[in-house]
Amino acid sequence: MSSNNPPVEQVKLALEYVDSCNLPTTWANFRMHAFVEPATGKEHIALTLGDVADGKPVLARIHSECLTGDALFSLRCDCGPQLEMALKKIADEGRGALLYLRQEGRGIGLLNKVRAYHLQDDGADTVEANQRLGFAADLRNYSLVEPMLQHLGIHSLRLMTNNPRKLSAMEGLKVTVAEHVPLIIERNPYNDRYLNTKVSKLGHMLSPEL
Ligand SMILES: [Zn+2]
């Protein structure tokens, strides 16, 4: 954009919109919107499909980055399959949004996630591992959701999640959730204990036998 100094009120914004482009995928041709947090330089994206600014509730996923699950096919968690299922569901409806927030490893970062996985290799569960490293069980912050939705013209969500904390975080942020859409993922021998811990210690809404 312009090389002039931005006005003072822009500097204070928590999130700045940068640009948008097309993103063709296996399932649909999405629009990809890029944002940056001026305070930290962290980059975030949103994918949208169809007219999301028409005032009707939008099928949406608020997904926090998980490099191992999203990009490296890890079976240790359910992030990759959740991401894929969310994009497929949006494609099936021909309308929706995916906010991709760069807060890796429930907010502890990639390197600490490797440390936490090491502790889990030695027997800790996902919550114990984070706590042993000195972190809370879940450090994710959803404060960017509201400015992102506002930029996209989205007023109300049909939110795809199994996480009641995410639903209550949206309430706290005054983001309207018109409907809660579960995202049930198949279990495997590697994510089974992780998913059980999510249910027992983090309150996720997953049926234990699934
Ligand atoms: Zn993951």
Broad structural category? alpha/beta
Q: Give the count of structural domains.
A: 1
Q: How many strand elements?
A: 7
Principal-axis shape: globular
Helix content: 25-40%
Q: Describe the biggest sheet? A: 7 strands, mixed
How would you spell out the order of helices and strands? HEEEEHHEHHHEHEH
Computed Rg: 18 Å
Low-confidence stretches: none
Number of separate helices: 8
CATH superfamily assignment?
A: GTP cyclohydrolase II
Task: Report mean pLDDT, rounded to a whole number.
Answer: 88
**How far from one another are the termini?**
50 Å
Bound compounds:
zinc ion
CATH topology: Rossmann fold
CATH class category: Alpha Beta
CATH architecture: 3-Layer(aba) Sandwich
Query: What percent strand?
Result: 15-25%
Instruction: Give the quaternary arrangement of the chains.
Output: single chain
Strand order of the largest sheet: 1-2-3-5-4-6-7
Keywords: GTP-binding, Hydrolase, Metal-binding, Nucleotide-binding, Riboflavin biosynthesis, Zinc
Active site: 138 (proton acceptor), 140 (nucleophile)
GO molecular function: GTP cyclohydrolase II activity
Organism: Undibacterium aquatile
Short description:
This protein is α/β, with parallel strands linked by helices and 210 residues long. 33% of the residues lie in helices and 23% in strands. It has one domain: GTP cyclohydrolase II (Rossmann fold, 3-Layer(aba) Sandwich), CATH 3.40.50.
